[in-house]
Specification:
The complex is a heterodimer of chains A (110) and B (183).
Chain A (H helix, E strand, L loop, with lengths): L4 H11 L7 H10 L9 H23 L5 H30 L11
Chain B lengths: L5 H14 L2 H22 L4 H17 L10 H20 L14 H10 L2 H7 L3 H12 L4 H8 L3 H25 L1
Classes of the chains: A mainly alpha (110), B mainly alpha (183).
């Protein structure tokens, strides 16, 4: 009867071995890995927010002094395109953060 | 089989987090795969397909949340935590009452009886344990983890793990006794 800890440990290790490296499993894992977007830092978020506010302010100012000309049309298009780019980047960052499941890290020393 | 030091592991993880380096992660997978798959095969009673599926899922989940890994523990400990919880969750889905604590896993009495005739005694004794107790026994005896670390992985107090280990050993002893008697 394997009552003793050491005996039980030995017999479990005799029965259950480490599996050999399976390259197929490694390939399957790697193929399933998502393309990682780099998490944006606080400074990036701050820069995005400031540029977003500036864009909105300049859009409002430009609208107030609007008179039809080719130059003002180009400025309007550029401001709108940049605003869309900034908003979509922020939304994409948030979506990536939400889709990433959070696992609680075990803080055990090794 | 590649063995990585903790520093090498952290370097690879940093590379994965910073630039999504899949090759760096493949090295981590290859380094931890033998131990993890071996452990999962023990947990699943030698079901190699299920063990491989769980291992695959655990590696992918670990990668998805690599940015939350702070390096206080070895990557392996963290990986075993994810794999153990995946296994316990999979058992919860299968068990009708959903009681992972007391249930005897997916193995019925009749199946154990049948196994008694053909399987090795230790495998039968392990199968007689609940999925949670089997995880505790294998982490402690097979992976040689201290009680403190096992407790973290199964999200319990170390004292509870000690009691469960003791009860599991007793249950295994009784199963083996029955097995010897029936032989």
């Amino acid at each position: 009867m394997k009552n003793d800890d050491k005996e039980l440990r030995d017999s479990i290790r005799r029965e259950i071995h480490d599996a050999p490296v399976n390259e197929w499993l490694t390939r399957r894992v790697v193929n399933r890995l998502p393309q990682r977007r780099m998490a944006s830092s606080w400074i990036e978020k701050l820069a995005y927010s400031i540029s977003g506010v500036l864009l909105v302010v300049s859009a409002v100012l430009a609208a107030r002094q609007y008179s039809f000309s080719l130059v003002s049309l180009v400025i309007w298009i550029s401001i709108t395109a940049t605003l869309i780019a900034v908003v979509s980047t922020i939304v994409a960052d948030k979506a990536a953060a939400v889709s990433r499941p959070i696992e609680r890290e075990s803080r055990q020393d090794c | 089989m590649e063995t990585l030091t903790k520093v090498e592991e952290l370097r690879l993880i940093a590379s994965c987090v910073a630039s999504g380096d899949h090759r760096a992660y493949a090295r981590l997978v290859e380094a931890w795969q033998p131990q993890l798959v071996g452990y999962l095969r023990g947990l699943t009673g030698g079901d190699t397909w299920l063990a491989d599926d769980l291992a695959q899922e655990a590696f992918v989940k670990a990668y998805q949340s690599l940015s939350t890994f702070r390096g206080a523990a070895r990557f392996g400990t963290w990986l075993f935590t994810i794999a153990t919880r995946l296994y316990l969750d999979s058992r919860r889905k299968i068990l009708p009452a959903g009681n992972i604590d007391e249930a005897r896993g997916a193995v019925s009495d009749s199946r154990i009886e049948r196994d008694l005739e053909v399987r090795h005694d230790l495998g039968v004794a392990l199968k007689s344990l609940s999925p949670l107790d089997r995880s505790i026994v294998l982490l402690f005896y097979l992976r040689d983890m201290p009680v403190r670390k096992v407790a973290r992985i199964v999200d319990m107090k170390p004292e509870t793990v000690k009691v469960r280990l003791h009860r599991a050993k007793e249950k295994m002893r009784l199963t083996l006794k029955k097995y010897d008697y029936e032989k």
